[in-house]
Specification:
- The chain is elongated.
- The protein starts with 5 loop residues before the first strand and ends in a 10-residue tail after the last helix.
- It has two domains: 204 residues, Rossmann fold (3-Layer(aba) Sandwich), CATH 3.40.50.620; 80 residues, Four Helix Bundle (Hemerythrin (Met), subunit A), CATH 1.20.120.
- The chain contains 13 helices and 14 strands.
- By secondary structure, it is an alpha/beta fold.
- Keywords: Aminoacyl-tRNA synthetase, ATP-binding, Cytoplasm, Ligase, Metal-binding, Nucleotide-binding, Protein biosynthesis, Zinc.
- InterPro entries: Cys-tRNA-ligase, Cys-tRNA/MSH_ligase, Rossmann-like_a/b/a_fold, tRNA-synt_1_cat_dom.
């Protein structure tokens, strides 16, 4: 496999050599969207950044088993369904189709397997029953709660609850302020031994990931906003069930900001992917996202997209000039080494693109022997198509 790449592990707060359990396979789970609306550019960042990691691991010789879920049980889905006179399932399936349309447009490779929370309710019920048996859950009124203190407390990803978590309140009937819902009896939803109702969000991902990838994952990827409570709660549930470490490398991308605020479907400020693609080619949006390391915040603006357009056009012209000259000269080899070294260092796509930009400037001024090989890496690893005009 060559030298080991380093990746930032949220669990340890540092860059670590990436060593999967199996020397030939990487088991990766990515948190998918709650399907009640179109995807915005914040989603694009999450799935494009993971797509590059996946492509890079494949280029290193790994087989990547990639599972991604759709959260299709949610109050927001129910609310939209009532507003539009549809069933929750119709709303969810519609936005799952829209998700695939957007991601295919952005050249995001499809997962090995997609799961829906609604298909895993029987497994979620079994997990809840098991947690009750083990003493890590309890019933209070119409709700089954996970007992955080009984399971040893948080700390896998969030090291200081007092500084990090604000606004947790003691709900009547909860033993501890951080205890969270495993099942809520509502009279609607799904039949269960606890009563007809709906599962808690955190249990859903544990059921889906462990069923498809096993008790320990190599990579669990998601946006930074999922660190707490979602991923912290997932980790505690899984450890309570198996006694094993749930995830070896927790990896989180930072936010896309719009006018200084985090972009989200629930906030007023958002830029839908398909609206952006009416003005800019998908390759430009992909270039814009990858100009920054996945762990830094980026500000969405027309100006930054225009800068990405200029860079993309430069790379495309340089690639066209270099096409067909396969034998790499020393100059091209040096740039290729810089490109790969940047990706080895916690997926520094911005540095990798800077190297490609510098090479492109040289190519447009003079001949650089064998440079097409580097542009081939841009296409296969960064997923930015250069062979056709926008």
């Amino acid at each position: 496999m060559g030298d080991l790449m380093k990746i930032f592990n949220t669990r340890t707060g540092s860059k670590e050599d990436f060593i999967p359990q199996d020397p030939f396979e990487v088991k990766a789970y990515v948190c998918g969207p709650t399907v009640y609306d179109l995807c915005h550019v914040g989603h694009a960042r999450t799935y494009i950044n993971f797509d590059v990691l996946k492509r890079y691991l494949i280029s290193l010789g790994y087989r990547v088993t990639h599972v991604q879920n759709f959260t299709d049980i949610d109050e927001k889905i129910d609310q939209r369904a009532k507003k539009e006179g549809l069933s929750p399932r119709e709303v969810a399936e519609r936005f799952i189709r829209e998700y695939f349309f957007d991601m295919d447009s952005l050249n995001v490779m499809r997962a090995t397997k997609y799961t829906r929370a609604s298909e895993y309710v029987p497994k979620i019920i079994k997990i809840t029953e098991r947690l009750l048996e083990l003493g890590y859950a309890y019933r209070s009124g119409n709700t089954i709660y996970f007992d955080v203190e009984a399971a040893g407390g948080f700390g896998e990803l969030v090291k200081d609850l007092k500084e990090t978590i604000v606004g947790e309140i003691r709900v009547q009937g909860k033993r501890g302020p951080f205890d969270f819902v495993l099942w809520r009896v509502t009279g609607e939803g799904f039949d269960s031994p606890f009563g007809r109702g709906v599962p808690g969000w955190h249990t859903e991902c544990v059921a889906m990931s462990m069923d498809t990838l096993g008790e320990t994952l190599d990579i669990h990827w998601g946006g930074k906003d999922l660190i707490y409570p979602h991923h912290e709660c997932e980790s505690l549930i899984a450890k309570a069930l198996t006694g094993k470490r749930f995830v070896r490398y927790w990896v989180h991308n930072d936010f896309v900001l719009i006018e200084g605020e985090k972009m989200s479907k629930s906030s007023g400020g958002k830029a839908y992917i398909r609206d952006i693609l009416k003005k800019y080619p998908a390759e430009v949006l992909r270039t814009w996202i990858l100009r920054s390391n996945y762990r830094t915040k980026i500000e969405y603006s027309e100006e930054s997209l225009e800068e990405a357009r200029v860079l993309y056009e430069k790379m495309r012209k340089a690639a066209a000039k270099s096409r067909g000259k396969e034998e790499m000269g020393q100059c091209a080899k040096d740039f290729a080494a810089t490109f790969m070294s940047a990706l080895d260092d916690d997926l520094e796509t911005g540095e990798a693109l800077s190297a490609v930009e510098e090479l492109s400037d040289l190519i447009l001024e003079r001949e650089v022997e064998g440079a097409w090989r580097i542009f081939s890496l841009v296409e296969t690893i960064l997923g930015i198509k250069l062979h056709t005009p926008p």
